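Supplementary Data S3. Sequence and structure tokens for construct A.
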Amino acid sequence: RFRVAALDRTAADVRVAVTGPMSLSPDGALNGDVSLRITNTDRLPELIAAFLPAWRDRAGEIAGALTAVAGKGGTVETKLTLRHGVVSLGFIPLLELPPLGPPEAIF
């Protein structure tokens, strides 16, 4: 088990900050409950599409779920759940992260 003290990045006028406890399963999938803060959520689809091309088709859907919480052009502060690499906002699955690898290879 490990804790993300602060992952805070800004790109394309979108600021994303993540904090909270996480763990890796034996196959390297992330698990945890983290706090997420995003500013300028209306710019999020273009940021997702630019940095994560494989998720381009889902960028609007992911941003839409977060914008619904924040309001247009706003800031969202919410909790995300990671279970076996699946990132969810409440009961809504947003995306699946690939395994990072076995914990002993990372730590």
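Construct B, processed identically:
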Amino acid sequence: TEQPPGAAELRRAKAYLHGQLDLHLESTERHMLWLAEQWSAFGRPIPAARVQEDIAAVTASQVRDAARAFFRPDHLSLAVLSNARPLNMSTPVLFSLRALEPVSTNV
């Protein structure tokens, strides 16, 4: 969260969101669900074109700022699922998200 995304990454993310919204609203049923969600959340319908404009206006620094607010180390959890080998459940292993180093536990 230190550096904002690069121009190419931001462009790809915006294109992805535009495409997903367009696909989501292709059917009449989906469009009606969209309108119901807008009424429920905002008390009025927000046109898809307005959402597309808002997506287009997002800057790299806004993405970085949102990531800083959302991805806070004190609020992160990590779950690892693997079938690589059996895990001894009597000895939990925790990892620090900063360096992924094992953290001792006294359970």
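The radius of gyration is 21 Å. The CA atoms of residues 29 and 65 lie 35 Å apart.
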